[in-house]
Amino acid sequence: MNSVVKKVALKTIGCKVNQYETGTLRQSFSSNGYQIVEFGEYADFYIINTCAVTAEAERKSKQMIRKAARINPAATIIVTGCAVESNLDDIREFKDISFIAGNSFKENIYLIINQIPSTEKFPAIFTSPIEQIRQYKESTCYSTSNRIRGIVKIQDGCNQFCSYCIIPYLRGRARSRPVKQILSEINTLADKGYQEVVLLGINLGSYGNDLDDSQVSLFDLIRKIENITAIKRIRLSSIELPYVNKELINAFVYLPKLCHHLHIPLQSGDNRVLKLMNRKYTTEQYYKTVMDIKEQVPDIAITTDVITGFPGEDVNAFENTLDLAGKIGFARIHAFPYSERKFNLASFLPAENEEIISKNRSREIIKLSKELHKKFIFKNRGREGHVLIEYQGQKENTNFVCGLTDNYIKVYINNTSTPKGQMIKVKIVDGKEGYAIGEPV
């Protein structure tokens, strides 16, 4: 008689690094005979990978715990991630949780799941001081997903200690993954048909600084990935400005597989606010660096993050941010109203802004972002390049596909049915709000 296959549902809240780590958990359960189902379905195990970067992220994390308990009150509910590190006392109060794992135990959830004691009152808790972790912790499985591009985590932790951020306290100090393991994973993705990989990290630009081999840098790693024939494009996630040096800029100039898209968080366009945020640059330095990149790589998309309503951000400071963003001409801006986090330095600053002010300023930034994004698309009319197909559809009996260019423009192409995950060469012929129209070349 065959045993019943256990079902596992996983939910990710937060960043792409969290998405990657959920992928490793998905693979570890799948390879051991568990059936993976959608989070809204009935399952025997629910794994919630939480986030704590904002109060809203923590709220959503707790909401998912309650949702899992409603779907199957008898399920084993496992909670992991940054909200565990930031708010363990609150998390452990949920009576439906069976198992809590801090970030240092996340990769081993499948291995220690049988250690859950039979108790109805209190969850089993696996945590350890995150500040004691000094080396990158390799997972037993690579990340898997149904994404068109492969995501690869190469670094964890952060040494920046920006005054608004608690991530260094939740993920520990910066630590880099060895090159051998990274290349092995990317070769595996290439064997599975992936043509683009995205390199992820909590502080990606610091990659290699903590490794014994002083010759290893992000530039060196990209150059090694370039040698993997089946990989056609390499994309970087967020890079902090102090790490955008001449070597990295040269990578965009001389390494043809590196996508012409760079996400550099700005956070504020006012020097006084940047100092309060403990950011390691001035607006003048930021502007000069971006202009240097654009001069050498004219088609590059520079995207950014902005925090609105930070304590001490007055009307003049916010206007400085709007002015600088317009002057730089970002391809896109992600705006976040300031969210106070306990334990960080910003929570002790005076002159706190009301929540409504932060949200209104965020809306202004989003409005500016739409205008700048439209300009960037129109600037690219007439350009030819490859689009990685992510979606196939049909409208009025006409087939169409859409995907991203290497410089981060969503393009729709009519009268074609190129399979998802493949690349097609196109010419951008028109621009709309939020996307472009392309024709096959």
Offer a quick outline of the entry.
The chain has 441 residues and is of the alpha/beta class. The chain has helices at 16-30, 55-71, 82-86, 88-91, 109-112, 167-171, 179-191, 218-226, 246-254, 271-276, 283-296, 315-328, 355-379; strands spanning 7-12, 35-37, 45-50, 76-81, 97-101, 124-126, 150-153, 155-156, 175-176, 196-200, 233-236, 261-263, 301-308, 332-337, 384-395, 398-404, 410-414, 423-432, 435-440. The strands form 5 sheets. It has a 6-stranded parallel sheet with strand order 2-1-3-4-5-6, with helices on both faces. A 5-stranded mixed beta barrel has the order 15-16-17-19-18.
3D architecture notes:
By secondary structure, the protein is an alpha/beta fold. The protein folds into three domains: 124 residues, Methylthiotransferase, N-terminal domain (Rossmann fold); 230 residues, pyruvate-formate lyase- activating enzyme (Alpha-Beta Horseshoe); 57 residues. The chain has a six-stranded parallel β-sheet, sandwiched between helices. A five-stranded mixed β-barrel has the order 15-16-17-19-18. Strands 7-10-11 form a three-stranded parallel β-sheet, sandwiched between helices. A hairpin with a 2-residue loop joins strand 18 and strand 19. The longest helix has 25 residues. It is globular. The model has no long low-confidence stretch (mean pLDDT 93).
